[in-house]
Amino acid sequence: MTNVERIPVLISGGGPVGMTLALELARYGVRSVLVERNPTTTRHPKMDLTNGRSMELFKRLGLMKNLRAAGVPADNPFDISWITTLAGHELHRFIYPTSNQKQDIIRRENDGSHASEAPMRVSQIVIEPVLKTAIDANPLIDVRFGVAYDELVSEDADGVTVRLKDAVGRSETIRAQYLAGCDGGGSSVRRDLGIEMDGDFNVASAFMVHFRSEARDVLQRWGVAWHYQSSTGTLIAQNDVDIWTLQRWLLPGMDPATIDPGKLLEEWVGQSFNYEILQANPWSAHFVVAQSYGRGRIALAGDAAHQFVPTGGYGMNSGIADAVGLAWVLASQLEGWGGAGLIAAYDQERRPTAWWHLQASSRHMGVRGAIHELYGTSDKLDAPGPEGDAARTKIGAAIAAQGNAENESWGVELGYRYDESPIIAHEPNAPAVPFIDYRPSTIPGARLPHVFLRDGVSIHDKLGLYFTLIVLNGADSRGMEEAAAALKIPLTVLRIDEAVLPVLQKPCLLVRPDQHVAWRGETLPSDPRHVLEKAAGRA
User: Fold this and answer.
1) What is the pLDDT of residue 3?
2) N or C: at which end does the chain have fewer Cβ atoms within 10 angstroms?
3) pLDDT at 45 (0 to 100)
4) Local confidence band at 312 (pLDDT 50, 70, 90 cut-offs)
5) DSSP per residue over 452-496, as a string?
6) Are 18 and 147 in contact (CB under 8 A)?
7) Which residues pair with 145 in a beta bridge?
8) What pLDDT is recorded for position 2?
9) Tens digits of per-residue pLDDT, 443-484?
10) Nearest-angstrom CA–CA distance, 179 and 176
11) Among residues 48, 384, 398, 408, which one has the least CA distance to residue 231?
12) Is residue 62 classed as helix, strand or coil in its secondary structure?
């Protein structure tokens, strides 16, 4: 193996999760090789929302300006409209602020109840080139598109040996200290590990029609909306100008092989109009989570580890959090200060979170089903005159009563907590985390709530690269600092002399590199060494 290339981390998969992992590793000074079997970024419209938590994390990577420029204009709304057809009637509209309006709300309220960044409407087709530009420019990332992970040759206590293959079938062998499988739902890395998925496959099927059209008089009949939805599918405005995606649910008896995409599109819209179909295909959605997030020096992230129906938009967004959680763990191992417990903790933190997100997505899917049934209670929804008006008013009110939790589940987005983690200083009787409402909390395992400090800077932006000790009461932190130095655990001290205690709840907090709270107290710990060793996976 004298001619085998040796690297710290090999990342299989160049989607948003793999590219984010590479950029996060580079923040810590870790080199990686990223391989992606496709020659270019995706041409498939897989997602259309980057939520506030992901935007917080992308901000750490310096991507905010370029991402905002690539996304839907920040003055466009996130409205969700339920309709009969686009040629028929609007039944109910859930109205939401634009990104700019949301950013104003975040700054004005400043009570810890929001992410530091507003969400962004953006297609994966658009977001991937922004990430690709960033990884191409980073000297610590060796980017190899058109090169695929072929097979796991061997693994041992010191690393893994992998065979790669390019587009013309040429093979090369590479030796990595760690391997990250970010290679999607059909993950070859997961296959080679023999890890199965638990849950339900093929819980829903749809036919996607991705198309270009400037017929906004038809497609935005009642004004700009993010989604126009009916009982049979959803029209997604990808850029509010000329790119759209119809996701038409496949009902029993519908054979995808016989579907005419143009006819399907026109039937859903309710009339003929000018368009160009860019892509059309059936697909199936799953509710599944991997039985394990890895083995030894191999870890899974993103769709390789979990797959959800896209209600709620938890797929890619959960994957971004996977990448952030995995990156600091791998960096700690390569730098020598992280204990073996961190590898186990990645699985014990992110896998239960995936199940929680799956449950939320399933609940949202249930609401969609209930609304579908509402449509079937009346055959007068497109009728003219008072009879039709009464039917539409009744169904519209019933839709409003069902609500739109899939776009309002701030607890799912921001409140998830690592209650099963072995590296968290857990507190007894921690309250349950609600799906819908986000209740800012610094209970160990939770994400540190965001708040702007007196100078207008987010507290998140003042955290150190690794662990941060936040001190609000002027306590002497030398004991903690000396313990960290002796253990060679990187620690930054952040002293805050302003009234943010109501948000942070305790005057002393130890915050991890992924912005989750590891420990908190009224005073600094009497045994700081034990707290630090536990947080670093060495206890």
Assistant:
1) 77
2) N
3) 86
4) confident
5) B-TTS-BGGGGS-SSEEEEESS----HHHHHHHHHHT--EEEEE-
6) no
7) 36
8) 56
9) 999 999 999 999 999 999 999 999 999 999 899 999 999 999
10) 7
11) 398
12) coil
**Rounded Cα distance, 244 and 86, in Å:** 14
Instruction: Name beta bridge partners: 165.
Output: 148, 171
Paired tokens of 462: 């003042």
Residue with tokens 């296959």: 191
Question: What per-residue confidence (pLDDT) applies to 503?
Answer: 96
253-291, pLDDT tens digit by residue? 899 999 999 999 999 999 999 999 999 999 999 999 999
Cβ pair 301, 17 in contact under 8 A: yes
Q: What is the DSSP code (8-state) at residue 257?
A: G
Of 352, 252, 244, nearest to 293 (Cα)? 352
Would you say 64 and 117 are in contact if contact means Cβ atoms under 8 Å apart? yes
DSSP annotation of 526: S
Query: Is residue 34 a contact partner of residue 19, using CB atoms and an 8 Å limit?
Result: yes
Distance CA 448, CA 459 (A): 9
| 142, β-bridge pairs | 33
Spatial distance between the Cα atoms of 82 and 92, rounded to a whole number of angstroms: 5
Q: Say which residues have a Cβ less than 8 Å from residue 209's Cβ, sequence separation at least 6.
A: 245, 246, 248, 261, 264, 265, 277, 279, 280
Instruction: State the pLDDT at residue 109.
Output: 97
Q: What are 114-138's pLDDT values in tens digits? A: 999 999 999 999 999 999 999 999 9
Q: What are φ and ψ of residue 459, in 5° steps?
A: -60, -30
Residues 6+ apart with CB under 8 A from 207: 247, 248, 250, 254, 256, 259, 261, 264, 280, 281, 282, 283
> d(Cα 468, Cα 24) in Å, to the nearest integer?
17
Once rounded to an integer, what is the mean pLDDT over residues 314-318? 94
Q: What are phi and psi of 295, to 5 degrees?
A: -155, 130
**Tokens read off for 481:** 């600092």
Which residues, including other chains, have CB under 8 Å from residue 330's CB and lie 6 or more apart?
Answer: 9, 25, 30, 178, 180, 299
Distance CA 243, CA 272 (A): 17
Q: Measured between alpha carbons, how far is residue 8 from residues 159, 268, 474 in Å?
A: 9, 51, 40
pLDDT value of residue 522: 95
The answer to whether the CB of 244 falls within 8 A of the CB of 233 is no
Length of the chain measured in residues: 539
Question: How much is the pLDDT for 46?
Answer: 84
Exposure string over 39-68, b if 16+ CB within 10 A, otherwise e: eebbebbbbbbbbbbbbbbbbbbebeebbb
